[in-house]
Fold Glutathione S-transferase.
Amino acid sequence: MKLYYAPGACSLSGRISLHEAGLAAEFERVDIKTKTTEHGYDYTAINPRGYVPLLVLDDGNAVSENTAILEFIAGMDASLAPGGPLGRTRLIEMLSWLSTELHVAFKPFWHSEGEAERAAASEAVASRLALIEAHINELYLFGPRFTVADAYLFVMLRWAQAFGVPMSAAMLGYFERVAERPTVRQALVEEGLFTPLPSLDSSSIEALI
Ligand SMILES: N[C@@H](CCC(=O)N[C@@H](CS)C(=O)NCC(=O)O)C(=O)O
């Protein structure tokens, strides 16, 4: 399968989730401004909506919308969804909230020129982060187990940090906990967003002094 992505965009949550599920995939970068893929294709011919992510399955079926893609990946690896009789419903409930309430609250940061609108967006995001904080139970959104919803929230916490939205100590702790997962580090490295420290031997230590 192939995930169309842009570095650091919401598609990063699909990449993290694919790695968590141990699913092999290709990744094709999209320039979301010019709507051109890294191989020079017109992305709007692949996804007429023009945005990432898009997951194209090996049989040619294409899954669009981040929530559907994450739900699909959780369907391939049940450990990435909450358990219990209402597990699937709870996952869709959380992904819907993340997409329609939190994700959209960031839009003015990209699409608005005005300082007042960006300040209002910062408040809107901060108030939603305060709401979601109550769901962080034990380690992650659904308790001790990481799910695809955590991958999505992590991406938006990166944006919140980049745009200077205030975050509570509990939220920062959660953010750092997710950032430390090997799959998350791998995904960040692959998208050119994280440079791990070189493994230190005596010569490299000398080079650092
Ligand atoms: N409704 C879509 C929205 C996806 C979305 O907003 N993607 C952003 C990156 S996070 C994008 O590609 N923006 C470029 C554009 O809209 O032209 C989804 O949930 O998948």
